[in-house]
Amino acid sequence: MALHGKVALVTGGAQGIGKAAAEMLLKNSSKVALVDLNKEVGEDCVKTLTEEFGAENLFFFECDVTDWGQLQDAFKKTVEKFGRLDIVINNAGINNEKNWEKTIEVNLTSLIKGTYFGLEHMSKEYGKGGGVIINVSSMAAFLHSPHQPVYTATKYGVVGFTRAMAGAAELGNYGVRINVLCPGFVDTPLLQSVDNEDNMGKFIKYKDDIKKIMDIYGVLPPSVIAEGMLRIITDDTLNGAVMKITSSKGIHFENYEPLSA
Question: Of the N and C termini of the chain, which has fewer Cβ atoms inside 10 Å?
Fold first, then answer.
């Protein structure tokens, strides 16, 4: 897929990986809807990006992705403003072992909703022109963390859901490629949450262990994750791919055994 003139919706789009993805898309002449719960950060992000890329190419939609109506409205408003939708990046995520139900809602349930809403606006089964969905998981789906069991579970779930949906898209001729991206540690506000008891709950006592693991594996800048997203969007051969991005190996893919009959 060429990016010129395409329209993207990015959840968790106001900072970190989401903001880096938005910048990458705008630099490649796409239009972007930034969807985020944090109004102040969202408005600041749009102000900064508008100075470089123009107000006509992006807008901010304040949204709690766990609210079905709000998320659905974000998709509708994006299509109303730009006339189409071609790319969905389900990036919103939190780390909260204390309120673990919320972690499941944000990291997995809202991502599933975002995938289905994206299909409604892009899939050939609804008479649309096709597109790309990127679901953001984590290397926690492969290197499970005993310090973050529910966060880990959600990221496993994202990989399984995405691979299954990619198969459904192929079987159903949706015209939508669905892939998953699994970064290692990334320099975002989420990374700082390991210092907060309100996020970690009883696992706060392991925060120094987590920081030691960060030192071993390294911390990536969000711009590197955006590079991976660019590759997923532009490479029309990728569907059901599980892209890993780590400090040691850079961009690479998980290989699975083919399903047997």
Answer: C
